């Protein structure tokens, strides 16, 4: 069995899947065996809209260092906006 | 000569079988050419779903003379979706319910026994989550042989925080209906060697026919040729033990 700890967070925004853009409602974040990445485990994020069915999904599988770097980059980008004020 | 060579190739197709509660679900059928007689094998896919890799495994059984059917255990949540999207949806929903699984394996076995080429014997094999499900099915249904490839949460419950809603089923060991082969990795943590040792004890206590092998240098998923977890020595030896097991217990 291949599942471990899972964090779920309600999100707003949009994602682009195989059929184009769709509104996002949920992000599921978990460490698991990947579908595609060549690693034993990856940090996986599914951006989802469950009301639109299982295919309304944008998926990423990241190595642990990449995932931590991404988390830091997201916060850094948001903090930069906070320090500068509103975007032009 | 060329035609005769082609005739010997296994044939595979997508079919519909009647699963739990009479639901019609998708399945992948692979079978040897000709009229049999052939034993049947229900193949249970891993957590990542009804994927190409497991279809390849299903064809391998056909190449070895078995009629093999792979039920799409994620069909109800995601009919027609890609296997990875379907697996994500089922994972988020807590996994495949045990009762439904038993009904779907029963449907797969019924389908195999109904084939004109059937010899009447049906076994089950599963990988990863399917390993646990193979044990579950063999404890709940009249089958002729079973193989559990690194199925977790048979003995211990899932760790806290997991979305998977499954319970330990080691308590069913006394109901095991057929000989059980277990293939595990010494470096696996789900199931750990300590867990499989406890399952062995329980099977022995009930006087069941079983054989467990735990491979050094292998962890979870050592049969998966398309993943870094692949361990050729363990997989090669494991396959030979599968052929021996099914050859012994599924012969008419």
Structural account:
The complex is a heterodimer of chains A (88) and B (252). The mean pLDDT of chain A is 90. Chain A has a 4-stranded antiparallel β-sheet. Chain A contains 1 helix and 6 strands. In chain A, 24% of the residues lie in helices and 41% in strands. Chain A has a domain at 3-63. Chain A is globular, with a radius of gyration of 15 Å. Chain A has one helix at 64-84, and strands at 3-10, 14-17, 20-23, 26-32, 42-48, 57-62. With 252 residues, chain B is of the alpha/beta class. Chain B has a single domain (2-249), classed as Alpha/Beta hydrolase fold, catalytic domain (Rossmann fold), CATH 3.40.50.1820. Chain B has 7 helices and 8 strands. Chain B has an 8-stranded mixed β-sheet, sandwiched between helices. In chain B, strand 7 (180-185), helix 6 and strand 8 (210-215) form a beta-alpha-beta unit. Chain B is globular.
Condensed summary:
The complex is a heterodimer of chains A (88) and B (252). Chain A is 24% helix and 41% strand.
Q: Distance N terminus to C terminus of chain A? A: 49 Å
Shape of chain B: globular
Q: Kindly report the spatial arrangement of strands forming the biggest sheet of chain B.
A: 1-2-4-3-5-6-7-8
CATH-derived architecture of chain B: 3-Layer(aba) Sandwich
**Major sheet of chain B:** 8 strands, mixed
In CATH terms, the superfamily of chain B is: Alpha/Beta hydrolase fold, catalytic domain
Helices and strands of chain A, in order, run as EEEEEEH
- Taken as a percent bin, the fraction of beta residues of chain B is 15-25%
User: What is the largest interface, and how many residues per chain?
Assistant: A-B, 24 and 36 residues
Residues in helices of chain B, as a percent range: 25-40%
Average pLDDT confidence of chain A is 90
Largest sheet of chain A: 4 strands, antiparallel
CATH class of chain B: Alpha Beta
Number of strands of chain A: 6
Rounded to the nearest angstrom, the radius of gyration of chain A is 15 Å
**Class derived from helix and strand content of chain B:** alpha/beta
CATH topology description of chain B: Rossmann fold
Proportion of beta-strand residues of chain A: 35-45%
* Uncertain parts of chain B: 1-6
């Amino acid at each position: 069995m291949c599942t471990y700890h899972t964090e779920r967070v309600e999100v707003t925004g949009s994602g682009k899947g195989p059929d184009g853009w769709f509104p996002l409602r949920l992000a599921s974040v978990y460490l698991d065996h990947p579908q595609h990445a060549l690693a034993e485990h990856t940090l996986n994020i599914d951006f989802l809209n469950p009301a639109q069915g299982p295919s309304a999904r944008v998926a990423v599988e990241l190595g642990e260092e990449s995932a931590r770097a991404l988390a830091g980059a997201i916060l850094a980008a948001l903090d930069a906006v906070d320090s500068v004020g509103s975007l032009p | 000569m060329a035609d005769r060579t082609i005739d010997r190739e296994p044939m595979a197709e997508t079919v519909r079988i009647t699963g739990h509660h009479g639901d019609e679900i998708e399945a992948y059928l692979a079978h040897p050419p000709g009229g049999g007689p052939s034993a049947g094998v229900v193949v249970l896919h891993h957590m990542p779903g009804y994927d190409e890799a497991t279809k390849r495994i299903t064809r391998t059984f056909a190449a070895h003379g078995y009629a093999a059917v792979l039920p799409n255990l994620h069909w109800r949540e995601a009919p027609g979706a890609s296997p990875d999207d379907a697996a994500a949806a089922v994972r988020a929903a807590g996994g495949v319910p045990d009762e439904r699984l038993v009904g779907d394996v029963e449907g797969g076995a019924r389908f195999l026994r109904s084939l004109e080429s059937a010899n009447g014997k049906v076994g089950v094999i599963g990988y990863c989550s399917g390993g646990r499900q193979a044990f579950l099915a063999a404890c709940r249904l009249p089958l002729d042989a079973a193989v559990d490839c690194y199925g977790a949460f048979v003995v211990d419950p899932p760790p806290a925080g997991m979305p998977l809603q499954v319970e330990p089923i080691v308590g069913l060991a006394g109901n095991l209906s057929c000989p059980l082969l277990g293939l595990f990795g010494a470096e696996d943590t789900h199931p750990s060697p300590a867990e499989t040792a406890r399952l062995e004890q329980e099977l022995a206590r009930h006087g069941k026919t079983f054989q467990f092998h735990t491979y050094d240098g292998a962890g979870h998923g050592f049969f998966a040729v398309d993943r870094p977890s692949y361990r050729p020595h363990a997989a090669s030896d494991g396959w030979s033990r599968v052929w021996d097991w099914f050859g012994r217990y599924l012969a008419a």
